[in-house]
Amino acid sequence: MTVKKLVGKLHLWLGLASGLLVFVVAITGCILAFEQEIKSIVRPFQYVEPVAGGMILPPSRLQAIAEKQVPGKPAKGVNYGALGHSVNVPFYGANPDYYFQVYLNPYTGEVLKVVDEETDFFHFILHGHYYLWLPEEIGQPVVAYGTLVFTMMLITGMVLWWPKKWSRSNRDKSFKVKWKAQWRRVNYDLHNVPGFYALFISLVLAITGMIFGIQWLSKSIYWTTSGGKNMPDYQLPLSDSTQTRRYANPTDRLWQQFYKNKTETASLYISCPERASESISVSINHRPGTYYKTDYYTFDQYTLKALTGEGPYFGEYETAGFGDKLRRMNYDIHVGAILSLPGKILAFCASVICASLPVTGFIIWWGRRKKKVLKSQRRVAKTQAV
C-alpha cells in the first residue's frame, strides 16, 4: 500500500468517526459568528439615549435595584457599556444552573429588561458548540478531541489534495469546481476545492477551539509563545478579611476612580464581592465587541490595596508579554472578531465549508462503496453464468 493510499484510509476512517460532531460544531459556530450583531437588533434595551452632562449612577445603587428583580440571588458585578449603552448586571450560579441579566438605564436606574439567558436561543446554541448539549464534563472533552481528529483530517486532506504534477489540467481540478460535470464529480469538487481554500482559516479555528478544551495543548502553546513560562491556573488573589473596612462602599470608590478616566468608547466592569475573602475585580475593555484589549485590576475590598496575580488575565494589555497577549486574543481569533466584521465573515464562511465537508465526504464514500458492491455482484453473476 502506498503512502497516499494509507493517508486516504486514515482520512476516511477519521471522517466517518467524527463527521457528525464536526457538522454540529461547525453549524453552531456559523450561527454564533454574528451573535452580537443579531442581538444588537433584537435587544434594543441594550441601548439608551445619551444625556449630555448626565450623572451616571454608582454600582451600589444599580446593584441594589437589580437584586430586587432577581430575589434571593446576588449580583456578580455591574457592567457599564460605552456611551449610549445601558448597564447590565449579571446573576449566575450552579446547582441549579441559572443565568440572568438585568439591563438598567445608567442615568435613572430604570429597569429596561430582565433576561433569562438560560432560555436564550444563542445560549442553547453555545452549549451545543461547546458540549454537544451533553453534561460539561463529558461534552467538552468529546468536542475538544473531536476537533483534534478534525485537525488531522484537514492535514491528511491537504496531502490527498496535493497534485502529483502541477500541470494546467491538474491545477484546474485542484482549484476549480467543474459545475457542468455530473453531480458526483461536482460533489467531489465541492469537497476538495472549498476545503483547500478554507484550510488555513479552518486550522486556526480548530486550534483556537482546542485551546479551550485540551489542557496539555493549551499549556504547550502558552509555554512556546511566552518564552518558556508555565501557565498558572487562574486564581483571583484574596482580600485580607482581618483588616477593618476603610470605605462604606468600596466598589463605588473604585468606580469613581476608573470611570472618570474611561473613554466614551470603552466599557467598564466592576465585580460585587459576595464573600468576606473575595477581592474586587475591575476590568476596562478598550475595544468592546472583542475581549483581548482589556486591562484587569484587582483590589482588596477592605483597604483597596492593589493586588497582583499571575497569568494572562492580570494587568494591562499594553504591558503584557507576547504569550499573554496571544492568549487574550484566543477567543477573538476563534470567532473572527479580531478582524472586526471582515474577520467574522471569514470565520462564518470557513465554518460553512467545514460543515459541508462531512456531508460531501460521506456522499463520496457511499458512492464508492455502492460502486464496489455493484462490481462484486456483477463478478458473482458472471461466475454463476459460466
Automatic annotation (TrEMBL):
Q: Which InterPro entries match?
A: PepSY-ass_TM
Sorted alphabetically, which Pfam families does this protein's record hold?
A: PepSY_TM (PF03929)
Q: Which UniProt keywords apply?
A: Membrane, Transmembrane, Transmembrane helix
- Bilayer-crossing residues are 12-34, 142-163, 195-217, 345-366
Which PANTHER family has this protein been placed in?
A: BLL7967 PROTEIN (PTHR34219:SF3), IRON-REGULATED INNER MEMBRANE PROTEIN-RELATED (PTHR34219)
What protein does this entry describe?
PepSY domain-containing protein
Q: Tell me the organism's taxonomic lineage.
A: Bacteria, Pseudomonadati, Bacteroidota, Cytophagia, Cytophagales
